[in-house]
Amino acid sequence: MAASGKLSVLARQLSTSSVTAQLVKPPIQVFGLEGRYACALYSAASKNKVLDAVEKDLKGLQKQMRSDPKIRDLLIDPTTKRNVKAAALKEVSTRVKFNAATGNLLAVLAENGRLGRLDGIINAFSLIMAAERGEVVCEVITAKPLDDSQRKQLESALKSFLKQNQTIQLTAKVDTALIGGMIVSIGDKYVDMSVASKIKKYTDIITAPV
After folding, report:
1. Which residue in 78, 102, 143, 158 has the fewest CB atoms around it within 10 Å?
2. In Å, how far from its chain's centre is CA 43?
3. Which long-range contacts does 188-195 make (Cβ < 8 Å, 24+ apart)?
C-alpha cells in the first residue's frame, strides 16, 4: 500500500467524524513512521476541531511518561496482549477525559504494537502544531550554557531565517562533548559548527591513507 493510502487508513482509524474521505494536510511535512501517525492524528483532530485539546492531552501524557517509569513500562510491556492493552488504554482515556482522538491514537498504537514509538509521535505532532501557530522550532546545542546576552544575540541572528508572521521557538541544550562552538537546527536546516566536528574532520584527513 502506498504511503498516502496508509495515511488515509490511519486517519480513518483515528477520526471521530464520519467525514474522513479527504485528508487535512499538515502545515509542514514530518517523516518516518512517527510522522505518518502524527499527520494522521493532525488530520483527524483538525476535522473535529480538537487540535488544541489533543495537543494538551499528548503533552500531559508525555510528561507522565518521562517522570514515571511505571507508566512508560506499562505502555511498552510486551507481555500484555495487544487487544487487551488497546481496550485498557481506551478505558483509561475515557476515565481521565482524554479527547476521543487521543484515545483512538493510543488504541491504534496498541493494536499495531507501536506504543514504543509514542514519544516520537508526540514530538512530531508538537512540530506540526508549532508550525500551525507560525512557530519555527530551533534547537541549539552548545558546550556551555548560553547566558542571556548570548541567547538574545542568537535569537536575533536566527530570525533572519524566518518568513513574515513566523516566530522562533528556541530550545538550548548543553553537550560538553562538543568542546566548543555549537550545533544549530532550525526547521529543516542543520549546521554543525562545533569544535568536536572540526577535530574529527582534521583527524579523518590526517589518518586517511595516501
Report:
1. 78
2. 16
3. 189/161, 194/141, 194/143, 195/143
